[in-house]
Amino acid sequence: MATYVFWGTVATTLVSGLICSAMAVFAWRNHDRPAAAAFGWLMVAAAAWAFMATARVLTAEPASAYLFDRFARAASSSTAPLVLVFVLSYIGREDVLTPRFVGLVWIVPAGYTALSATAPLHGYVQGPESVWVGTWEDAAVLTVTEGIPSQIDLLYTYVVLAAAFVLLARFLVRSRAIYRLQTATVVTAILVPVIVNAATQFYQFSHPGVDLTPAALGLTGLVLGWGLFRYDLLDVTPLASDILVDELPDPVFVLAEDGRILDHNRAAEAMFDADPLCDRRLTTVAPRLAERLDGSSVYSRSDGPAEEVTYFDPQVTSIDDQHGVERGRLVVLRDVTGQQRRQDRLEALQAATQKFITANSVERIAELTVRFADRVLDQDIAAVYVHENDRLCPIAASDGLERECTLTELTVEDRGHPIYSAYESETIERADVRDSGTTMPFRYLLLVPIDNHGVLAIGSREPGAFVTEDEQFATILARTTQVAFTQVDREHELRQSRQAIERRNEQVAFFNGVLRHTLRNALLVIEGRANHLRDHVDDARQRHLDRIVQWCEDLSELSEEIEAINDTVTASEAQRLDRIDLGGVLSDRVDVLSEDFTDVTIDLAVDDGLTVLANDLVEKVVDSVISNAITHNDAPAPRVEITASEIADRVQLRVADNGPGMTDEMKETVFERNVGASQTSHGFGLYFVSVMMNLYGGTVWIEDNDIRDEGTRRGAVAVLEFQQAETQHTSRSPENERT
Hints:
alpha+beta, Rhopdopsin 7-helix transmembrane proteins, Beta-Lactamase, six-stranded mixed sheet, five-stranded antiparallel sheet, kinase, transmembrane, membrane
């Protein structure tokens, strides 16, 4: 019997070595998997231990037995550190495996191996002389006596293995460790040879020269390889079971890498109405949902006999292992039907608002309001009442309401009626109109005032049908309708005002035309009579006739100027503005004024190419400003300096004089209408300048001139800013500088 046990142990140890070798090869072929490299080296050490232990048992030479024993002990001493390295790799703590840490872990195994190899030199470890022949029930085997260093190495092995088990235990209970069953398998596989080794320390199961631990390593390699490489995703389900709360109203399920459903809660099963769901692909159960898991779109589903649409927002969470590799996905379908409906209502309101803007009548606006209310409020009917002649008259209503009665029958005249009460109080009311004496077929009403225009009525046959959200959207709709009504009223008033202005302009133009025509004819008659009298008047009195003729010519010219001004005022901006060469206008006017005022020095400096937006009346504008500077100049040597230049996108004209200047109060009022031409200059005065600059889209103001005369500041500067017709490069030209 002992012989069978002996040879059975030897055979098991040999098979264990073969299994560990196979696992090492398998690990090498799957080296891309996490912890595969550490597992491979562990299997290499286990295989070496098993083969060397088998060789030692089978050899009959003491020297060979001692050599095989040294190799076996070197392999066994390295097994515990390799287990620790494997565990650290498995739980994702490769950051700990620094060269320094690995060196510290291998100090004892390396020292023990070195002492064993050099035993004949120092004697600290048993040498070849420690080999002896041991027998156990007729079985004789060469055995090597163990010493104290061997016991120290064994103790160190247990300490390292204990550290590995602590790490695995902590990893096993962690909530993020998704490989719980696999981790338990790893713990069991490593624990088997440890238990066997510990048991042999206290009880002799076989020949003392035969170690049962290498035989148990085969089982360890087989279980570890199977659990590490084959038992991969099946343990996602236990983690998902921890995560899933079966009572959640939202559907929740776990997907494998290939899209199979691994687990789900009851809500998911009820939603898809498929039994069983597990191991079925999501693309088969819900194809449209599978397409939306990788995007941000909402998944909709119609349920029930009424085909009510429910909206879900898929929330996808990646299920990663301890190495950060995705092993599956946790999908939660969050019900967002309420949010989606609110969004749909807001989008519909936005679309309706665009239509409200283009609506040109109260009836059209009311029709849009009813249509929108029918679309988004999910109530039976809607109607818009407007206030006319102390009555509230419906001008638009839902088709369902018009099928029940005519709009005339729905008119409300009784001020005690809930609809009239809501209109007068301008407060939102929920009313029961059963006893109101009205023909309204819908008993329960939500009444929202539309300012002083009327009331928006929402009707239902069911009590309590109006929720807060309905009231909020009805209020928004009523306010939008109110704005649209007000806009239509204002546009109507504006059209009436425009028509009145157009009629008035036509009347003014007519009477102006008659006046100018009559005035011109009268002036022609006066001028003709004066010329006729020349032959009957002596030379001494001819100057009176000349004065009459001159006034006739001036008044005729003034009539033409007034006509031009009137045309400018009544014309549109595009009609009144043209591109004017400001430099040319200034040059011409300075030539004329220099001849009229020979005692005044006029300096002109204008940049080239200054083109402004104005019309032919700009000559009169320039004349008025320059004439004002000349006429009111009381200096002994009157001087006017005119400059024009481009400033940003404007053209600035400055007319500076050395006259008495203006007070601050005069600067503020000089352009007002009540300041006559006699206070400023001949012609239309500076009020005319202000009006024309405003029509040109420009501005005008007065500044102080920085001239000192015996300590007193003198002079003023009239500044005119025009719109620039186009941006051009400007430079000061000698041709535009003159005195």
